[in-house]
Give the backbone structure.
Amino acid sequence: MNKKNQHFDSKVIHAGQSFEPVTGAVMPPIFLTSTYVQESPGVHKGFEYTRSHNPTRYALERCIARLEGSELTEEQDASYGGFAFSSGMAAISTTLDLLNTGDHIIAMDDLYGGTNRLFTKVKERSAGLQFSFVDLTNLSLLENAITDKTKLIWIETPTNPMLKLVDLEGVVNIAKDRGILLACDNTFATPALQHPLDIGFDIVMHSATKYLAGHSDVIAGILVTGNPELAERIRFVHNSAGPILSPFDSYLVLRGIKTLSLRMRRHCESARRIATWLNTQENVELVIYPGLPSHPQFEIAEKQMQIDGELAGGGMITCIIAGGIEKSKSFLEKLEIFSLAESLGGVESLIEHPAIMTHASLSPENRAELGIEDGLVRLSIGIEDCGDLIADLEQALA
Ligand SMILES: *Cc1c(COP(=O)(O)O)cnc(C)c1O
């Protein structure tokens, strides 16, 4: 069967993969080598030095490139436009390194806290970039924010922690063909649900630490582009600055991706059930979940987040516990199956308090503007028995 026509469930296992040519090993060996022997100066098998090329990293990069919809051939780019980084932040930083001093970036207002910090506390100073943060749930604000200097639009959808959604097609309609790069942090949705490149985006970014690797045991980042010229520019910075993923960690992420489709189905199904249940609880003031009709951008979720043509709202839920900080703290302490921890997207359920934990680096005013209240908690629904998860929430809410 033509690989391109395979269903996503098959692609997560086979995309971009070939058996190891010497032994036929089904999984790529972990090539722990920094350098490769040459027959004669400059005569080699395409591998010179692991910062530039590594077969285990290529296996991961080719796989995620195909899952995100890049159709680049090996001649156009050795890893089909996929690039693996030592962290999600390194992938974002490399995207900014494609720009020049003085360039202007429009970013979603509700962003992963570390992304906001990299933009405002590092790159503004070190690279002379300028950032505007705009609530892109309202796309009329995008048109007004674009200037002659705008060279990148940075989207996160769903956002963290408010799970706001941005209409990717709407962004493409406004900004395409104006010489502006369009990049989407696809960490929360993953290619199991959402395909920004197919919609017209230039770059997809992942914190592979989360759903792609899926087992809370590795820090990794990804960029994918389907544009050969852009792939060349990313490859140049990736190799020049060197924020690469190690062969061992590449193997871990590739291994995690094999079950991405199975896991995402379960994450989405359990999250939908739990969000629906939370909505009926007296001690819960508000439930935010893209798969609930009460979500402010529910229509966007229906349009761009799907598994097998059906709405899939993802594995993250945000809610407000009645009674403010004291009640939300005691709720978090009483949970037994949910672990109180930062991060998300692993097989185990996690819960966290953004105002104190992941988003503590934002100013109180900024948090208030975004709606990150003291009673707000963020749940990453794992793949445990869903009834057990609801029972755990029930006893802690009581
Ligand atoms: C975690 C995360 C990042 C940062 O990735 P790291 O792998 O922790 O460096 C970026 N964006 C989103 C949406 C994230 O959740």
